[in-house]
Amino acid sequence: NAGVTQTPKFQVLKTGQSMTLQCAQDMNHEYMSWYRQDPGMGLRLIHYSVGAGITDQGEVPNGYNVSRSTTEDFPLRLLSAAPSQTSVYFCASRGAGTNYGYTFGSGTRLTVV
Amino acid sequence: GENVEQHPSTLSVQEGDSAVIKCTYSDSASNYFPWYKQELGKRPQLIIDIRSNVGEKKDQRIAVTLNKTAKHFSLHITETQPEDSAVYFCAAKYTGTASKLTFGTGTRLQVTL
Questions:
Q1: How far is B81 from chain A (nearest CA, A)?
Q2: Cβ–Cβ pairs < 8 A, chains A and B
Q3: A32 neighbors A46 (Cβ within 8 angstroms)
């Protein structure tokens, strides 16, 4: 049981490049979310999903796309990277029911130059 | 949407003393309030949570209190130890959403010897 797995751990992009951050969980969790973490700003929600085929925007969705074709995977796509997207990205998941506690992945540190 | 404010942003206590971190939330319909601990370079980890039908919850040296009328909740750490040094985040979940957590901006706790 690996929990929530994120790849890559580190990435450097040039402005304008695109890439996909991968997130996979093996706990059969229905709910998955992507957060970005910036100094002094806590964790801000980018996109989230309540199940396969269902996604919705969080508070900072611009410049990012997501899809949820399977329960296990929830990739985050940066369409055209900008320096403002330099951040640490965390994927998180939780099961259905009354246990609302999210399990976080280990994060991806992204630098856009 | 939900807004969560967290204070203080930094807190320094001596080993053995107590630490208190406070959060306020804006939406009275919020019903779930978790606390996460994040050590340097690591992922956030859930340490305790409380639901809106409970006023207080304890787990060994940590406790969380909730005042629904005032819309604030607090984390209490007693007999602090150096390993308690970390950044702590509070969060709130609006009852109308299945999975959206809104986080506070974090408190950096330093426990000195």
A1: 24
A2: 52
A3: no
Interface-testing mutation among B3, B101, B103, with chain A (most A C-beta atoms within 10 A): B101
A34 in contact with B at a CB cutoff of 8 Å?
A: no
Question: Which are the contacts of A19, defined by CB distance < 8 A and separation ≥ 6?
Answer: A11, A13, A77, A78, A81
Instruction: pLDDT tens for chain B, 113 residues: list them.
Output: 778 999 999 999 999 999 999 999 998 889 899 999 999 999 999 999 999 888 999 999 999 999 999 999 999 999 999 999 999 999 998 876 666 889 999 999 999 99
| Inter-residue contact B11 to B112 (CB < 8 Å) | no
Which residue on chain B is closest to A94 by alpha carbon? Answer: B99
| CB environment A48-77: b (16+ within 10 A), e (fewer) | bbbebeebbebebbeebebbbeebbebbbe
Cis bond upstream, residue B8 (ω within 30)? yes
For chain B, the maximum distance between any two Cα atoms, rounded to a whole number of angstroms, is 44
Compute how many other C-beta atoms are within 10 angstroms of the C-beta atom of residue A44: 17
Q: How many Å apart are CA A102 and CA A62, to the nearest integer?
A: 23
DSSP B61: T
